[in-house]
Amino acid sequence: MDILSRGTALNGNVRVFCCRTTRLVQEAVDRHNCLPTAAAALGRTLSVGCVMGTMLKDKKEKIEIQIDGQGPLGMMVVDAYHDGTVRGFVNNPQVEVFKKENPQKLDVGKAVGTDGVLRVIKDMSMKRPFISEVPLQSGEIGDDFAYYYMKSEQTPSVVSVGVLVDTDYSIKAAGALVIQMMPSATERDIQIVEEIVEHLKPISQIIDEMKNPTEIAEAIFADYQELATQELSFKCECNKGKFAVVLSRLPKEDLLEMIAEDHGCEVVCRFCNTTYQYDEGTLQGYVNAQTAYEKKQKEVAGKA
Question: Can you give the pTM of this predicted structure?
Answer without folding.
Answer: 0.92
